Amino acid sequence: MISPSLDAEALAEALRERLASPAGRTTSRLRFATQLEYGRHRGPALPGTRPATVVVLIYPRSDQWCILFTLRARTLSVHAGQISLPGGAREAGETVEWCGLRELEEEVGVPAVDLSILGRLSPIYVYRSNFLVQPLVALAPQLLQFRPDHTEVERLLEVPLSLWLEPSHYDQMWIARNSLRFLAPCFRFESFRIWGATFKVVREFVDRAGDLFAN
Questions:
Q1: What is the mean pLDDT of residues 80-103?
Q2: How many domains does the chain contain in total?
C-alpha cells in the first residue's frame, strides 16, 4: 500500500505506469455489464454523439486516499439525483484534459494548480444522454478544500479507495427504464449506490491500480 503519509510522487509514478499499460482496459467492463447491455456500449458511437470528460480525482483525507463523487442536483435535466464523477461536455476547441480541469474548478472549486493529470481510462459511451465520455485520472497530493457549485452539485461524497477492494460494498440493483426492468451492478457507500457508467469507470481504475491502495 502507498500511504498518504508517504511522498505522493511515488503514487503518481506508479499510477502513470499502470495507466500507460493496456492491460485490464476492457476486463472490468465485460465483468460488470448490466443485463440490458446488448451492443450499445460497443463499437463506434452513434451519429451526433457529444464528447465529454470526467475525472477520477484521487486525494488524501484522514490518512486515506479517496475518490471524489458528486450527487447531481435534482434540478438538472440529465442524470439528476445520480452519483457521478466531476466532469461534463467538452466545449468547441477544448482538449480532453482542459475540459476535465475546467469542470473540476467549475463544479467543485478545485483549481488546476492543485493537481496533476496522470493518464486516461477507456472511453465509455453513455446511451441515455448520448455522451462519449473520456475518463481521466488526476492526483492531488495535498488536502483539498472543495467549493461545490450547488446549482450542479447537491453534495459531495468522499469515498476511500480501500472500500472499493472490499466485496461487502458490492451489490446489484433493479433499474426501471420505461417498461423495462433490469439488474445492474452497484457499489454501496453509506445510503448511496454508485452504478452505471460511473461505476464502470471506477471499477476499471480499481482493476488496473487498486492493489496500490490495499490495506
A1: 93
A2: 1
Greater confidence (35 vs 203) lies with 203
Q: What pLDDT, on a 0 to 100 scale, did the predictor assign at position 42?
A: 52
Section 197-212 average pLDDT: 95
- Print the domain residue range for 93: 8-213
Q: For residue 177, is it within any domain? A: yes
Helix or strand or coil: residue 85?
A: coil
Sign of the C-alpha dihedral, residues 96, 101, 105, 107?
A: positive
Residue 92 lies in a domain: yes
Question: Cα dist. 118→35, 92, 134, 138, 162 in Å?
Answer: 33, 23, 14, 5, 20
Query: What is the rounded distance in angstroms from the CA atom of residue 87 to the CA atom of residue 76?
Result: 14
DSSP conformation class of 18: H
Whether residue 14 lies inside any domain: the answer is yes
Cα dist from 74 to 43, 78, 152, 175, whole Å: 32, 9, 8, 18
Instruction: Answer yes or no: is 1 within a domain.
Output: no
Residue 178 has pLDDT above 90, yes or no: no
Query: DSSP label at 91?
Result: P
Nearest to 33 by CA among 169, 145, 127, 138: 127
Mean pLDDT score of the chain, rounded to an integer?
Answer: 86
**Mean pLDDT value across residues 193-203:** 94
Find the CATH number of the domain harbouring 129: 3.90.79.10
Q: What pLDDT score does 39 carry?
A: 46
